[in-house]
Design brief:
There is one protein chain. The protein has 2 domains: 210 residues, Vaccinia Virus protein VP39 (Rossmann fold); 122 residues, Rossmann fold, CATH 3.40.50. The strands form 3 sheets. The chain has a 7-stranded mixed β-sheet with strand order 6-5-4-7-8-11-10, sandwiched between helices. Strands 14-13-12-15-16-17 form a 6-stranded mixed β-sheet, with helices on one face. The chain is built from 14 helices and 17 strands. It is globular and about 65 Å long. By secondary structure, the protein is of the alpha/beta class. α3 crosses α4.
Length: 409
């Protein structure tokens, strides 16, 4: 695909920041090894807008290929359901929402977020392009439209005639090719009382802990709070609240509304904007520092794996981010299997490399000497899981810095 030349927010010119290794679309796990190995590599590179400083991928991606049969389910991400429950309770209390309120969730996935409102008798509706996710949402009673959110969809479903008290976008905005058009379409559904809630990854915090594997073809943009200031100006919105969370290595929750909305911005807005000014989040230096750290961890990990090449080695974690870690660190040849608790991944083969995914409960059948925690953000949970199933041996954690543990009786 031809690299984009204009920013996804302000349409100004981009410049290159970091070219990663070409990589497969990380979630395209396949039932057959030959099909998995036929998954192509695609350009993966970061660029920054010379004007508004939005960090983004320099190349477009095949959205439909990634999302129509998306294997990812919200409910399978560690503690995400609890996080969404806390967010929903906070929105209900802070903005006086009640069961007469109608909630629209764009990028609703398996319905986990909306279920919190449905259980409180709210009227809810989700929109998501993933057919498997929408089918699961329906199974738990969450009505979902299995389409992309577009202006045509708004007209098709007469959404202009609806009155939404809350519109939510959870970990979806980063996946949108044309952010300004997307927000403009959302504003068509907002009145003076509508609250717009956006949860997304916060790359300054993620990159500070070397969380490079959040960079993938599904995440087209990497936001700061200043980016939302720009979006608010462009679309006649105001920011009511900003909250930073540790979830997913660093996340932010932004609450916006029309200018005529009666709620006033909370103190957190100016505080967080000021914090970004002090920390110079628009600089490329933190990225260069992260790349140095990653190079060091990659070198140490590969040296360790080479020295243990006669051992039985496997990895834990079958996901988009672990696909990118395997690719960028070039360690596929050392991993006999990948183990995971997600039954939707077990029995499949990883994109491009064709590594078989097995149920974590069967790990001892392989009797490994070395286990690499690919899903390193969940190290504590996975370490406890390994102890639970009886694994005893070397445990390697590649990031945020290389570590070795030995699990014993």
């Amino acid at each position: 695909m031809t690299p984009i030349s204009n920013c996804r927010i302000c349409k100004n010119e981009l410049y290159g920041v970091w070219k990663l290794l070409d990589a497969p679309y990380g979630d395209l796990f396949q039932d057959k090894i030959d099909i998995a190995k036929s998954i192509p590599l695609n350009t993966l590179a970061l660029a920054r807008c010379k004007n508004c400083q939005l960090l983004q991928l320099s190349d477009p991606t095949d959205i439909d290929l990634q999302y129509r049969k998306y294997l990812y389910f919200t409910k399978n991400t560690n503690q995400l359901a609890e996080f969404y429950s806390d967010i929903s309770d906070r929105l209900i209390g802070q903005y006086k929402l009640n069961s007469k309120s109608q909630v629209l969730d764009i990028g609703s996935n398996d319905g986990t977020f909306l279920k919190n409102f449905l259980d409180k008798k709210f009227m809810v509706i989700g929109i998501d392009p993933s057919t498997p996710a929408c089918e699961h949402a329906a199974s738990i009673g969450v009505p979902s439209i299995n389409e992309y959110f577009t202006k045509d969809l708004i007209e098709k479903h007469s959404f202009r005639n609806e009155s939404f008290s809350l519109i939510s976008i959870n970990y979806t905005l980063a996946n949108i090719p044309n952010i300004s058009e997307f927000i403009q379409n959302i504003s068509l559904l907002m009145n003076e009382k509508t609250i717009l809630s956006i949860v997304t990854g916060y790359h300054p915090d993620q990159f500070a802990i070397n969380m490079f594997d959040y960079i993938g073809h599904d995440h087209l943009s990497y936001f700061t709070i200043q980016d939302f200031v720009q979006l608010a100006k462009l679309h006649a919105l105001k920011i009511l609240d900003v909250t930073r969370y540790e979830h997913k290595g660093g996340s932010i929750h932004i609450v916006l509304a029309k200018q005529e909305n009666s709620y006033l911005p909370r103190g957190s807005v100016l505080q967080n904007i000021q914090r970004e000014m002090w920390s110079e989040v628009g600089s490329d230096l933190p990225i260069f520092k992260m790349v140095e750290n990653l190079t060091r961890s990659k070198t140490i990990l590969k040296r360790f794996l080479v020295s243990n090449k006669n051992s039985k080695i496997c990895g834990i974690g079958a996901s988009i981010s672990t696909s990118h870690l395997i690719n960028e660190f070039q360690i596929s040849g050392f991993l006999r299997f990948i183990y995971d608790d997600d039954i939707r991944k077990t029995g499949k083969f990883s994109p491009f490399y064709g590594i078989e995914v097995k149920s974590l409960s069967t790990l001892l059948e392989f009797d490994p000497n070395v286990v690499v925690i690919l899903a390193w953000q969940h190290t504590n949970k996975l370490m406890n899981r390994l102890i639970e199933i009886g694994y005893r041996g070397l445990l390697v954690v590649p990031l945020p810095e290389f570590r070795i543990y030995y699990l014993e009786e």
